[in-house]
């Protein structure tokens, strides 16, 4: 559902930005920031205002999202189904060991790392930029996710302070908090440094950020190894205003490339400004099928060549499927194998899980373990044998969590009179205690079951318990026969109403 919501939201944002009635600067990358900076007024009195939205993702409420959707509806068509999908994807459910946890106030939440989290922030960001039009022209301010930047020509102290308060009040009105810095000549925004006075820009790298690249002798596809220095050079050239700024910044990157086994020298690539490039060209979209086999130096077979040969062999010209499967519609691109660090980490985590699974008892005194060293087993059907001098009673129960947790709950019901009616076993124990009849309890695990998970047709654990009750031959079975008609209660944990 999150992926569908991401697609819908992204399409609506694109339609809004392409509308002739909007001039909002919602940036997607550094190139768009530089393009805005080049067209902004610069001079001796020009200054920046930089602001950051504090905890943007979790601060978005359902009411704020509704306002953003209403704003977007002015420039694009958003159906009721689209709105329901977008909102449904914000119902965040938290499960721990199969148990649903409830939020204190709501299930609506824009979580970081969700499929449509970034797109939701951009949609709300468009709405906030629309609100900021009341205090400044839209072409002077822009937003990238939770980072905002504005260029103010002919700035002075009182004017900047007034704008700072107005920007803060606009966000506060919508329940958002921001930090604002004003009267800046130079700012570091994303990975570029911008100067409002001289109009120059250069690459920005955090002080403790040291570039690190894959080694030239690593087990990667040759195209990646070959193109890596060129890609880095082009990237640095794009975010440098001229060769001078490029040469100032390239030292650390050249050193990182040499450390990784590359000998290429980095040289500034001039930006070509062809008038024809500014014209809107018709974009031809093709449905491409990608084949991504993993690449390894240990494989001597030319996988790509073999694959294309098989494609031509089985779908030759004249074949009814040749229009779908041919060299123009099917492309090949190698994927990379996991590195040694990833393999080792996965092995370590697997061993840790296995070690945890091997630990079946945490009792300090192993001799007093209620079930002979297996008290931490989960998803089990157990039997309690209640033995008196004259009669032997049997009780069958189940637990999705550890047996020890269920055992402690039984002990609590035996000791607290207000819990005597919690189970048939506790009822019988309290009856014997009131009659001063001595008894002995013995616990045994009868079966293991599969706890209920979303999508399962039936709960294996509940069915196993009912089977054990039906096949019991003990005449003094404490379980009621009507228990076999009870509905599975494990399904309830997946209901949305449990998290409201």
Give a topology summary.
Blueprint: H1 2-17, E1 25-26, H2 30-39, E2 47-54, H3 56-59, H4 62-72, H5 80-88, E3 94-96, E4 99-101, H6 117-132, E5 141-144, E6 147-152, H7 157-173, E7 177-184, E8 186-189, E9 192-195, E10 201-203, H8 222-238, H9 243-259, E11 289-291, E12 294-295, H10 303-314, E13 330-332, E14 335-336, H11 340-358, E15 378-387, E16 392-402, H12 403-415, H13 424-434, E17 440-448, H14 460-470
Parallel strand pairs: 1-5, 11-13, 12-14
Antiparallel strand pairs: 2-6, 2-7, 3-4, 5-6, 8-9, 9-10, 15-16, 15-17
Helix pairs in contact: 1-6, 4-6, 8-9
Can you describe what's shown?
The model has no long low-confidence stretch (mean pLDDT 87). The chain is built from 14 helices and 17 strands. With 500 residues, the chain is of the alpha+beta class. It is extended, with a radius of gyration of 33 Å. The chain folds into four domains: 198 residues, RNA-directed RNA polymerase lambda-3; 52 residues, no CATH class; 48 residues, no CATH class; 131 residues, no CATH class. The longest helix is centred in the C-terminal third of the chain and has 19 residues.
Give a short synopsis of this structure.
By secondary structure, the protein is an alpha+beta fold. The protein has 14 helices and 17 strands.
CATH H-level name of the largest domain... which superfamily?
RNA-directed RNA polymerase lambda-3
3D shape: extended
Give me the CATH architecture of the largest domain, please. Answer: Alpha-Beta Complex
Q: Find the CATH topology of the largest domain.
A: RNA-directed RNA polymerase lambda-3
Number of helices: 14
The low-pLDDT segments are none
CATH class of the largest domain: Alpha Beta
